[in-house]
Design brief:
- About 5% of the residues have low confidence.
- This protein starts with a helix and ends in a 5-residue tail after the last helix.
- The chain folds into two domains: 78 residues, no CATH class; 165 residues, Glucose Permease (Domain IIA).
- The protein is α+β, with helices and mostly antiparallel strands.
C-alpha cells in the first residue's frame, strides 16, 4: 500500500502542474489542467443546486469534465490498470479507510445497509426527491452539538480512498434549504468514480488537493436542510457514484466496502 501512496503522490505533483489547453475535449487532443476541471465541476454543481442550468446541459458538461479527468489520470503509467490488477488492489482492505475516526460498521444506519435506496436518483435534477443512494454513519451526539459524547471532541471525517478534491461547500447556513449542507466531492482515478461527503461541520481540504486514504477531510456536522433538524441524529452522509462509459454517474452501494474498510484510524 505504501508503494501506491508514493506513486500517487508523485503522479499528482506532475498532473497538478501540467499546463495544457483550457478546452475540455476527448483523448487524443489537449486536456485541461486539473485545477481548471475542479473549477468547472464546482460551478456545475452549484448551477444544478440553484437550478440555473438545464438538465441535459448539466449532463453534457458533467460528462465532458469526467472524460477530461479520466484522460488526464489514465495517461500516467501507474494508473493504467487492467481489470485483474484493479480487482486485486480493491480486494485489500487497506485500500479503503472507514470514513469516521473512532467508529466502525456498527455506526452505519439501517439494517445491513438498508438505508441505501438508489431508485429514482438523478444528480442533475435538483427537484427529484425520495431517493437515498448513500449510507449514513451516525455518531454519539445526544445534545446535537457536533461533539462526540464519549471523547468530547469533534469526529474526523476521513477520505475512504485516495483521490483529488473536485469541489467543496463551506458556507452553508441554517437559513438555506440546500440538502447537503457543507459537502466535499472527491474523484478516485483507480475506481474511476466520485465520492460525496455531506453534512460536514468543518471542511479541511480545498479543490485541487490530493488526499490519501484515511486522511482527515472534514469534521462531522449537522449542515443541510434535513440534517439540521432536531429529528435527525448527527451523521455523515457518504455516497459513491461509479462513472459509466459515457462519463455519467451510477450510484453504487458502499456497504460492503465499509465493512471491509480499515478501521484502525
Amino acid at each position: 500500500m505504501m508503494r501506491w501512496i508514493g506513486i500517487f503522490s508523485a503522479l499528482w505533483l506532475g498532473l497538478a502542474n501540467t499546463a495544457s489547453s483550457q478546452t475540455v475535449v476527448r483523448a487524443g487532443r489537449g486536456i485541461p489542467r486539473v485545477d481548471s476541471m475542479c473549477q468547472r465541476f464546482q460551478q456545475l454543481y452549484v448551477q444544478i443546486r440553484e437550478e440555473s442550468i438545464l438538465v441535459d446541459s448539466a449532463r453534457k458538461t458533467f460528462s465532458d469534465i469526467m472524460f477530461g479527468l479520466r484522460t488526464k489520470f489514465r495517461s500516467a503509467e501507474p494508473l493504467r490498470l487492467d481489470s485483474t490488477r484493479r480487482d486485486s488492489l480493491l480486494s485489500r482492505t487497506a485500500y479503503f479507510s472507514f470514513p469516521l475516526r473512532g467508529y466502525g460498521p456498527d455506526a452505519i444506519g439501517g439494517t445491513r445497509g438498508s438505508g441505501y435506496q438508489a431508485k429514482g436518483f438523478d444528480l442533475f435534477d435538483y427537484n427529484v426527491r425520495g431517493s437515498h443512494p448513500a449510507q449514513d454513519i451516525f455518531i454519539t451526539d445526544r445534545n446535537q452539538d457536533c461533539i462526540d459524547d464519549q471523547t468530547d471532541r469533534p469526529v474526523d471525517v476521513l477520505s475512504m480512498t485516495a483521490g483529488v478534491v473536485l469541489a467543496i461547500e463551506t458556507a452553508w447556513n441554517a437559513g438555506q434549504e440546500y440538502r447537503g449542507g457543507n459537502w466535499i466531492w472527491i474523484y478516485d482515478p483507480i475506481l474511476d468514480g466520485l465520492w460525496y461527503y455531506a453534512h460536514n461541520n468543518a471542511v479541511t481540504v480545498r479543490p485541487g488537493e490530493w488526499v490519501q486514504s484515511g486522511q482527515k477531510i472534514a469534521e462531522v456536522g449537522r449542515t443541510g436542510f434535513n440534517a439540521f433538524k432536531t429529528r435527525s441524529p448527527t451523521h455523515l452522509h457518504i455516497m459513491y457514484l461509479q462513472l459509466q462509459s459515457d462519463g455519467l454517474p451510477l450510484p453504487q452501494n458502499t456497504y460492503d466496502w465499509l465493512l471491509a474498510a480499515d478501521g484502525q484510524n
